[in-house]
Amino acid sequence: MHVLDAAVRDYAWGSPTLLPRLEGREPTGAPEAEKWLGAHPGAPSAVVGEDGSRRGLDEVIAADPEGTLGAARRFGRLPYLMKLLAAAQPLSIQAHPTLGRAREGFAQEEAAGVPADAPHRNYKDDNHKPEMIVALTPFSALCGFRRPEEATATFERVALALTEWADGDSTQVAVAARRMAVLLADEDVEGAFTDILDPASVWTAEGGVDQLVEALRGMPDLIRQDEALETALQVAEHFPGDPGVVVTLLLNRVDLQPGQAVHLPAGNVHAYLRGLGVEVMAASDNVLRGGLTDKHVDLAELRAVVEFEPMPVPYTDPEADGDGVTRYRPPFDEFELTRLSADAGRLAPTGDAPGAGVRAHVAGPAIAVATEGTAVLRCGDEAVRLTPGQSVFVPAAQTADAPLALTAEGHGRATVFVAALPSS
Q: Which amino acid positions bind Zn(2+), per UniProt (predicted)?
């Protein structure tokens, strides 16, 4: 097993307190958004040797792909990236491409000579990015399109608020809101989405979104009737004037409690709003944005990627797999997530080695991160002590020979989350 030292990304939307609180340390005052656990070239974790030496996990894998990856060699890389994600404010509204679209888009931009770090580049690599997040704290997100009739009712309320705000006049913004309601009544979700983000739209013009926000703030009774309007006002506090505020009215609001999860397939429009969670995704950085951002928005490419069919929220139901073992199995080839939880003083099952605690078999290369208590994680003859936020990489050669076993040190409970390949 290899102890990891993972990079923390300081994106502006990151929480200055959630990760420090998890890890039991003083905040620095700076935002701490994502702790990357993996071999992604954007920020590979460092493998720390007993002598203090450091090598990138990507280097360790490249030196022994058979032993480290095992069956995952078919992906040509460690197929997933794991993160601790801590959001204090909304992330950009975004969607991810299919594998075919990613390969095509990446090849086109490479052939066109678009620099890899160009701000207008859409495809950073040739991979797709299905993902899943499991909440560690109450966690809020926007996920997929609402049913058209629900969104229609919301925009009818918006048009009413804008008309009353203008003392009965039909302002351009009120007319635009009524147009949204008409499009959605005809189930033209793509038309409504496109109208909002069109560079010639009233919503992208200066003052358009501000009028909407001002009108809604003056009608608290209306806000109480519609959670989507309340969400839009909350988002507008962080992104004043951004057309993404209006896009939120098309999307499902999801509020997860700790232990609940959603998975996000290709084409799903989503935005995390706030909270701390364990996120796992295919190893990619391909993001097409659609608002709540100052980064590049390519509306044509975004429309080509997005699935406009309204669907139920894609919850990932946790599955109990023995005492202290919970599996999260999204419909993806690259990963699943296993949660191991052991109480201090738990006796080893009959026939197991002393202190074996909670056990689970995982498939292929694994990354484990502690989220609660002081954990002792074993695989075969090796053991590593982990406190919240600390992580370890377990090569496929080891997981093939022995299960992972967790015990809690001290008092209370220890919990680790383990990313690995889907198990049978």
A: 94, 96, 131, 270
pLDDT tens digits for 170-207?
789 999 999 999 999 999 999 999 999 999 999 999 99
Write 213-220 long-range contacts (CB < 8 A, 24+): 213/240, 213/245, 214/165, 215/158, 215/161, 215/162, 215/164, 215/165, 215/166, 216/158, 216/161, 218/161, 218/165, 219/161, 219/164
Catalytic residue chosen out of the listed positions 289, 329, 346, 378:
289
Backbone angles phi, psi at 13, to 5 degrees: -80, -5
Q: Residues with Cβ < 8 Å from 218, sequence gap 6 or more?
A: 161, 165
Return all residues near 99 (Cβ < 8 A) that are at least 6 apart.
Answer: 127, 128, 266
Q: Which two tokens stand for residue 377?
A: 């994680």
The residue behind tokens 């946790």 is: 318
Q: Please state, in angstroms and rounded to a whole number, the distance separating the CA atoms of residues 149 and 181.
A: 9
Tokens of 156: 């009818």
C-alpha to C-alpha distance for 67 and 340, rounded to whole angstroms: 24
DSSP letter at 353 equals: P
Q: What is the chain's percent helix, strand, coil content, to nearest 5?
A: 30, 30, 40
Residue keyed to tokens 């002792």 = 376
224 catalytic? Reply is no
Q: Determine whether 361 is exposed, middle or buried from the number of CB atoms within 10 Å of its CB (0-12, 13-18, 19+).
A: middle
Per-residue confidence (pLDDT) for residue 168, from 0 to 100: 73
Burial of 399 (0-12, 13-18, 19+ CB in 10 A): buried
From the CB of residue 232, how many other CB atoms can be counted at a distance below 10 Å? Answer: 23
Phi, psi of 378 (to 5 degrees): -120, 150
346 falls in which pLDDT band (50, 70, 90)? low
Task: Say whether 96 counts as a known binding-site residue.
Answer: yes
**DSSP state, 279?**
E
Residue 296 marked as a ligand binder: no
Q: Is 270 annotated as a binding residue?
A: yes
